[in-house]
Amino acid sequence: MDKLFSCKRWLIISPHADDAELGLGGSIARATEAGIEVHIAVVVLKGENHLRDQCYVSASQRHQELAAAMETAGAQYSVLNYVREGETFDLASSSQSVCISQLDKLIDEIQPELIMMPVPSFHQEHQWVYQCCVAATRPTKPGNPLRLIAAYEYPPAGWGNSSSWDSSRGAIYINISRHLTAKISMLEQHQSQMSAADNALISINGVEKLASFRGLEAGYDYAEMIYLMRGRID
What we know:
Layout: E1 9-14, H1 19-33, E2 37-45, E3 48-50, E4 55-57, H2 59-73, E5 76-82, H3 96-110, E6 114-118, H4 124-136, E7 148-152, E8 171-175, H5 180-188, H6 204-218, E9 223-231
Parallel strand pairs: 1-2, 1-6, 2-5, 6-7
Antiparallel strand pairs: 3-4, 7-9, 8-9
């Protein structure tokens, strides 16, 4: 799918501060290396309690980690909903129409040729963001340069709604054999999010295993998998 890297402006919708890198870090590294303008839109950034470690990670720490990861990636980013300490905000129960309007505005400003959205996994906020992305990429906008729309997976996507998104749904494998190290460098910036436990999904080890498995399926050392949702051939 060489057309993917002929798109000169990418917009990746990331529900949280690390999802784009978890799912597409190698592809992002390939794109920026090729001179492609990559913009990552984080839908919500807030402080949260980690059930895994029973500790609180502040919004400011998440933001610092995001900024460091984006600098490592060579990508631009924006945060649609930044929740400051002391404020409460639940994305999945908030207004989808507001988020769709935010995405509409961002698409109009960036004029991307490629949009990537998250698959609707078991995570309620990923499902919510996916629905907003589908609405924001509705095929009723004349004159825009959008050529491809795809959905990307992330390590826990094998359970829940996205588990039915198998390779028969137009899966595309992206060779990241030369860019896995760059992907790991991005994820290492998200220190508060990467687990050190054995066989943890959200971990450097989990990312490497998934990339190896997708590479095995495609005949590469390492790969990322996306699903083509809509494309245009001029």
